[in-house]
Write a structure and sequence with these properties.
Length: 173
């Protein structure tokens, strides 16, 4: 008897459900025309390292990309070798499209330092010295240091464009 009751309940439930669906209101019908995408296109040019493409965007937010182009690759020109004293000489390559720099060591070694000597004369405030600086790299050193010029030596000094010079006998003190 229980299985028959269960079957009758099930049939009654289906009958009521079907009746409710027949009495339900029909779905609302839109009076607006369906949306038609209107895409605005923007071309993104390829660079030396990134792909190019056309990007399309609709006002509704939908978007897609197509017309992909491969990266251009660097277009290197060579420059004068970069000379470092006592090290390998590096050949510098610069991309004429984006400015990217690349360098490779060559087989030849740089030469020894090309030292230029400059005498820095003492003043009343600072001492003098001799500066030895390489014309090809940042290497430099100083030697022959002197004390600042002072009046206790009993000599008269005159300041000129390249330092102080003894011009006669001065007064002590």
């Amino acid at each position: 008897m229980k299985p028959i009751k269960a079957l009758l309940c099930l049939l009654l439930g289906l009958l009521l459900l079907t009746a409710c669906e027949k009495n339900a209101a029909p779905p609302a019908v839109s009076t607006e025309p369906p949306h038609v995408h209107a895409y605005e296109s923007h071309v993104v040019a390829p660079t030396c390292t990134d792909v190019g493409y056309t990007h399309h965007v609709c006002a509704c937010g939908d978007s897609y990309s197509d017309n992909q182009l491969p990266p251009l690759s660097h277009q290197y020109n060579t420059t004068a070798p970069d000379v470092h004293c006592n090290q390998y000489v590096y050949q510098i390559y610069i991309c004429e499209l984006c400015g990217h720099q690349n360098s490779e060591p060559t087989e030849q070694k740089g030469s020894i330092h090309d030292l230029k000597t400059t005498v820095v004369y003492p003043t009343k405030e600072t001492g003098g010295y001799t500066l030895h600086a390489c014309s090809r790299c940042d290497y430099s050193y100083t030697d022959s240091h002197t004390d600042p010029v002072n009046h206790s030596t009993g000599l008269a000094y005159e300041k000129r464009s390249n330092g102080w010079f003894v011009v006669g006998i001065g007064t002590c003190g």
